[in-house]
Amino acid sequence: MGDDGERIEPWLLHHVRRIQRWQYGHTTHWASRHVTIGLLADGRWMVEHTDVTVGCRAYRDEQRARDVAAELTAVGEWVEVPAAYDAAGQPVGDGWVRRGGSWWRDTTSQETTDDR
What we know:
- The protein is globular.
- Helices cover 9% and strands 35% of the residues.
- The strands form two sheets. A six-stranded antiparallel β-sheet has the order 1-5-4-3-2-6, covered by helices on one side.
- It is mainly β and 116 residues long.
- A hairpin with a 3-residue loop joins β4 and β5.
- It has one helix and eight strands; from the N terminus they run βββββαβββ.
- The two termini are 23 Å apart.
């Protein structure tokens, strides 16, 4: 596995933890896209992107995964959205507020980003 990462199918893996996610466009729009950073059970980092197709690659280094995610979200207006929800439909992790039908980062909170 080089800098390009290893192609994986996270829906076939157990214990995938999605940590941070960004969205381009409205969820109900046909052109909506997502980029997600996550941690695999074996300690590798993944970057998953969804649009018309789904792609996911695993990287040994967290910084490389974050760099790839930054490249994928460099063009357009991307907003951070919850990466995962609990059984009650609440975002996993602190710092989220519900406004209308969407979850947004709480800008009044001190902890509004993932401090990894």
